[in-house]
Design goal:
Structural class: alpha/beta
Distance between the termini: 14 Å
CATH superfamily of the largest domain: ATPase, nucleotide binding domain
EC number: 2.7.1.4
Protein name: fructokinase
Largest sheet: 5 strands, mixed
Order of helices and strands: EEEHEEEHEHEEEHHHEHHEH
Radius of gyration: 19 Å
CATH topology of the largest domain: Nucleotidyltransferase, domain 5
Pfam families: ROK
Catalytic activity: D-fructose + ATP = D-fructose 6-phosphate + ADP + H(+)
Enzyme class: transferase
Length: 293
């Protein structure tokens, strides 16, 4: 009998919802604009309840969400979004109400941990023991997978809020930290700093050189802290295909030949684009759902 999974890639701009079967095929999907929690989650539930009529039941629900999140299953606020910059979402209970409404088990993790799991299983991080996925879109987030398992620890990685030196030409816009990677290099930051959306910036605009500078500082920190075999970049800003090459060049310059990489390995092999494209997030939610079914 075919198994069906309800999966959600919950982002700050939209919730991508899908029903995926056990052959990893998307049966049906929809995109719900991220508004206030009550309205957004009502539309999400409407989609899944409608599709449940067609599939009979869901084996599990997998949610890969923006955060920060409470991932401690013993906590009274398990499945809650905690202190997020996303207006109106702090303190939102996400996992449990959805799972109860759909009458199935639930697995929850950050959107970037989910994407990192998917890249480890099916994408650019296959057969690697330490994989980091970085998304650069509306915000910046990072997920870490070690030996196939997402890193949690005290809470979970918040790589977008890593403090970095920045660039003398710009100031950060994060409401929590003046010089974190997200506040300096996210799509929202570029919009505020340069007065226009990133997708409208010309390829020769100085913003892209500064963006590569910011992300190379982040890459430097990740390399010396985690020693990853892969740092995988995804997200909307990588529609600019030159960006990743510039990040590699600037990271090499920043490291100043300090790291002795294994023979035949260069930073071009380590810092790479996503292998799953726009599907890493939704497939991460699918992997989470399978893990608890």
């Amino acid at each position: 009998m075919t198994k069906y999974y309800a999966v959600i890639e919950a982002g700050g701009t939209k919730f991508r919802c899908a029903v995926i079967n056990d052959k990893k095929q998307i049966v049906e999907e929809c995109r719900v604009p991220t508004r206030m929690p009550k309205d957004t989650l009502a539309d999400v539930l409407m989609f899944f309840k409608r599709e449940k009529v067609n599939v009979g039941k869901y084996s599990a629900l997998g949610i890969a969400s923006f955060g920060p999140l409470d991932l401690d299953i013993t906590s009274p606020t398990f499945g809650f979004i905690t202190k997020t910059p996303k207006s109106g979402w702090t303190g939102t209970s996400l996992a449990v109400p959805l799972a109860q409404s759909l009458d199935c088990p639930v697995a929850l993790d950050t959107d970037v941990n989910g994407a990192a799991i998917a890249e480890h299983m099916w994408g650019a991080g296959q057969r690697k023991s330490v994989v980091i996925y970085i998304t650069v879109g509306t915000g910046i987030g990072g997920g870490v997978v070690i030996d196939g398992k997402p890193l949690h620890g005290l809470i979970h990685p918040e790589i977008g809020h890593t403090l970095i030196p920045g660039h003398p030409s710009i100031s950060g816009v994060c409401p929590f930290h003046s010089n974190c990677a997200e506040g300096l290099g996210s799509g929202a930051a570029l919009n505020e700093i340069w007065g226009q959306p990133a997708e409208t910036l010309a390829p020769e605009h100085q913003a892209w050189d500064i963006e590569a500078h910011i992300l190379s500082q982040l890459s430097h920190n990740l390399l010396v802290c985690y020693s990853p075999q892969k740092i995988i970049f995804g997200g909307g800003l990588f529609a600019n295909e030159q960006l990743i090459d510039s990040i590699i060049t600037k990271t090499e310059r920043s490291l100043a030949n300090y790291l002795s990489l294994p023979e035949s390995i260069s930073l071009n092999d380590v810092i790479v684009p996503t292998g799953l494209g726009q599907e890493s997030g939704i497939l991460g939610a699918f992997a989470l759902a399978q893990s608890c079914a």
